Amino acid sequence: MIIKDLSIWKIFDSRGEETVECEILTEKGVFRASVPSGKSKGKREAVSVDFARAKKSAAELKKLLVGREFSSVREFDKALLDADGTDDKSRLGGNVLLGYSIAFSRARASERDVSLWLLLRREFFPNADDSRRPSIFANLMNGGAHADSGLDIQEYMLVVRPGKNYADDVALAVDVYRSLGNTLRKKFKSKVLPLGDESGYALPLKDNFEPIKLLENEISARKLGKKCSIALDVAASSFFTGKAYKFGGETLNAKELCKRYEDYFKRSKYLCSIEDPFAEDDVDGFRMLLPKLGEKWAVGDDLTTTDAKRIREMAAKRAINAVIIKPNQIGTVSEACDALTEAKNLKLHTIVSHRSGETEDAFIISLARASSADGVKIGAPAHERMVKFNELIRVYEE
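Request: output the structure for the sequence above.
Response:
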């Protein structure tokens, strides 16, 4: 496939922050990809550049790539990585590289006359089990850096295990979200509820455990205990001072915070997963918690930043048994797929995830199916996030 032209545009994500949309022209047509942004970022993530620098990067890549022929996503990505030449994509920008990498993947799928997920499956995950379908991680309540609710924990998620079809699963998530909204309107005597960056409810509840209790009540009221559970994204780096954790109005060391999480899991029979429970460099904190969770998930995100090498290191240290995959943390489709492959080889659970600042690009759904991920994290089933929920239904009906 020969690249005929490259373009780049400034667009705005769901938080109103500028981001980029990249465009590739081939003989098959025009193919685009827009790149999300994250408000809560790990320090090892690929660097995102502003649009002024992105335009210069695009101009350089245009001179380098137009007229060249590429026969695979990995070959194209290698050209991008060679052009950048840095570990953190700081020269050209991870957001620019990812935009073109996804756009090329779409162009390649068109050339091969296959769905995007199937193209990725054949190139990167030939042994994936297509019978495996991911659970939906839907963020219903926001705190931390994603909201002004006063809660320390960033996300309280409803986890919906896959059933016969995703249309019913998505409808269930929407129903619980709306019902929770009605409960909160009555509780706060307000018709309008504040929302966080991912459209989860963002209200000043009495403590960090109360949202868990509210979600438990919704699950119990519908007798959904076999279908639904609860997951947390703590994003603990946001309340780590460098020496201690400011959590629930107290100053806690890692051991004390670990005990607090243990207590949460004992108090909630529906709590199944906890993401980034400690700061991104507090590996000992992760190692302390993991053996206490049994079959529950201890998920690395800021800890691992979709980097295959880092995932391998944290698995070897027995710090995690699950990992978040966010393509824009690493910068190219190939590297995100390598991170997924590494995680699966290590028997870690995998969750392909969106970002807080989202666009309408639903690439992550195709990536989840291609890799047979265990979970897909989308956000609240409302507003701009519904694009990805609808794509989930479409892609898994193919």
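Residues 166 and 393 are 5 Å apart (CA to CA).
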